[in-house]
Design a protein that fits this description.
5-stranded parallel sheet; 584 residues; Gyrase A, domain 2; 4-stranded antiparallel sheet; Rossmann fold; flat; 14 strands; Isoleucyl-tRNA Synthetase, Domain 1; alpha/beta; 20 helices
């Protein structure tokens, strides 16, 4: 799918872009071509605030890029003398093949700050996606297995993408496709019946099932003859045999209760749940149709789709014993989604190891005649410093254990620093800090970067961490409380011209653009990185520039600046699923 052009800008940046395009349209006349104009940011503030590369435009005009930009800069100076005052762009200069533009910071700052003061938590919202309905499918844990920190990365990425697209005005359906059948379920049910049927059940039954699954794999490795018994369980389950189906429903409920509890703690919500057990019959019907159309064929009793001519190898869509595979059900689900919800697009957040499977799925559907827009959003795995995790081997970091350990460390420090706080307050704030550490550490890495989760680093109050961002937010809150001044929208923005103030204002203006970029690239790390930079810029500003000790009028302007930084941080936090804290 081709990446769409960025459209979401702050009011100030939109006006600057309009002025730049207006100037170029007037100056270039017939040589004006919007396809060659890309407005970017110069690498250094001293070089200007906006920049365009002029290679394409110069070639079209038949002159060298350097001559072209010098001529345009001269024309800007001439036009500036005769055009009315009130423009945000105040100057244009030639930097080799680049034409760079400089803004009037007083006007620019007033525009940015007033917009954020007025819009508050709606800053960054747009109607770009109005009228479009999309589904974002994410999480997709397997029942009868434990929820581990590898699952956490999927949840963090998926829920953030849902938030991005909702902010851009799309109608978003957040979906969760639960794998509640398959070899892992058969192994777990077999081991439960054979070794644990008469045991008393522990409180956490979902965790109990995960241990049984690991045990099943170990016993099968020790005695491969057990596979015949597991296969019988699978056949009985698919045929609907009464006793095994009842056990499956009961144990599935245990897993789902654990998942629901985890989603609640992570503050994640789904509009729709799909279960692969509901898709077997529909999937098999599609397989039959693929056979009839000659798209699929039989191979040693199994049904395959040969995709070698597309460099996608062979896709197995039905086993030789007639049992369905994930691929069988994925075919049915893809069609069901669009038919039931009348979607414009469907996105799948699934780890990178499934990339080939999705390419095969999309190509098979295309050959079948189903050509709706679908995209796989891959991400790399999460590991611990000791190495790769595997549910099958039982060496995963369970989410519940991880959560408790993180919380324990934070609560210990919180009690130490705030002995006067109640247990309830310590617990609430400690959990929020722990979740911020988890989520931010995962989201600050690009999707294509493997994450080695280091708990100590994730909890640090200095550096690129969730607690650092929360600390900066709490620090701003403290300054605003100490001021005892109500900062209203009537504050005149006239004096925010120091370099630290300018840099902060300009960074704030980029926020709407960052949201859209994060959405279109399906990459929360773009926003996560932006928020870290914003927090750093605030810190540098506050270290050098007096706020509460400044003269009254400038103090009000600087407090207003801190207020909009706080609003922007809070909005960014909400998109990443992080709770802002007034105190830490």
């Amino acid at each position: 799918m081709k990446e769409e052009k960025i459209q979401n800008y702050s009011n100030a940046e939109s006006k600057c872009r309009e002025e730049i395009f207006g100037f170029l349209r007037f100056s270039l006349g017939k040589n004006f071509d919007e396809n060659f104009i890309f407005i970017e940011y110069p690498p250094e503030a001293s070089m200007g605030d906006f920049s365009i590369t002029c290679f394409g435009l110069a070639k079209k005009a038949g002159v060298s890029p350097n001559e072209f930009t010098k001529s345009l800069a001269e024309q800007f100076t001439i036009q500036k003398k005769v055009t009315r005052d009130g423009r945000i762009i105040r100057d244009a200069k030639s930097f080799g093949p680049y034409l760079n533009f400089f803004v009037d910071y007083r006007r620019f700052a007033k525009n940015v700050i007033n917009q954020i003061v007025k819009e508050k938590k709606d800053f960054g919202n747009s109607n770009i996606g109005k009228g479009q309905k999309i589904m974002i499918e994410y999480s997709q844990p397997n029942t009868h297995k434990e929820f581990h920190i590898g699952h956490l990365r999927n949840v963090c990425i998926g829920s953030s993408i849902v938030n991005f697209y909702q902010t851009l005005g799309y109608k978003v359906i957040a979906a969760n496709y639960i794998n509640d059948t398959g070899a892992h379920v058969s192994k777990c049910l077999w081991a439960y019946q054979k070794f644990h049927a008469h045991e008393s059940l522990p409180e956490n039954k979902g965790k109990f099932l995960g241990k049984i699954y690991v045990e099943a794999n170990r016993k099968i490795e020790e005695n491969p003859e057990y596979l015949k018994e597991v296969s019988e369980v699978a056949k009985k389950l698919e045929s609907g045999e009464k006793k095994i189906t009842a056990l499956w429903k009961k144990t599935k409920k245990w897993s789902m209760e654990e998942f629901y509890a985890i989603y609640k703690r992570l503050d994640v919500h789904f509009d729709e749940y799909f279960f692969d057990s509901d898709l077997t019959d529909e999937g098999k019907k599609i397989v039959d149709e693929l056979l009839k159309k000659g798209i699929a064929k039989k191979s040693e009793g199994a049904i395959i789709v040969d995709l070698n001519e597309y460099n996608l190898h062979v896709s197995l869509i039905l086993k030789s014993d007639g049992t369905a595979l994930y691929a069988t059900k994925d075919l049915a689900l893809a069609i069901k989604k669009f038919k039931k919800f009348k979607l414009d697009k469907s996105f799948y957040v699934v780890d990178v190891r499934q990339s080939l499977n999705f390419e095969q799925l999309f190509k098979t559907l295309e050959l079948y005649g189903f050509t709706m827009e679908m995209k796989h959003i891959p991400y790399e795995t999460v590991s611990r410093p000791e190495g790769t995790m595997s549910s099958r081997k039982g060496n995963v970091i369970l989410f519940e254990d991880f959560e408790n350990e993180m919380y324990g460390k934070v609560a210990q420090e919180t009690k130490k620093h705030h002995p006067d706080w109640s247990e309830k307050k310590v617990s609430r704030i400690s959990y929020n800090i722990a979740y911020a550490a988890m989520k931010y550490t995962i989201l600050v890495h690009g999707n294509n970067t493997p994450v080695v989760f280091d708990m100590k680093k994730a909890l640090e109050l200095n550096g690129k961490t969730g607690p650092y961002l929360q600390y900066m937010y709490a620090r701003i809150s403290s300054i605003l409380r100490k001021s005892n001044i109500s900062v209203s929208s009537q504050v005149k923005i006239e004096q925010l011209t120091l370099p630290e103030e300018k840099t902060l204002v300009f960074h704030l203006s980029k926020f709407p653009n960052i949201i859209e970029k994060s959405a279109l690239r399906f990459d929360p790390s773009i926003l996560a990185g932006y928020l870290y930079e914003l927090a750093q810029l605030f810190s540098m500003f506050y270290e050098k520039i007096p706020v509460l000790k400044a003269e009254k009028n400038i103090m009000k302007e600087r407090l207003c600046l801190l207020r909009v930084v706080k609003v922007t941080l809070a909005k960014g936090f909400s998109l990443l699923g992080i709770e802002p804290l007034e105190q830490m």
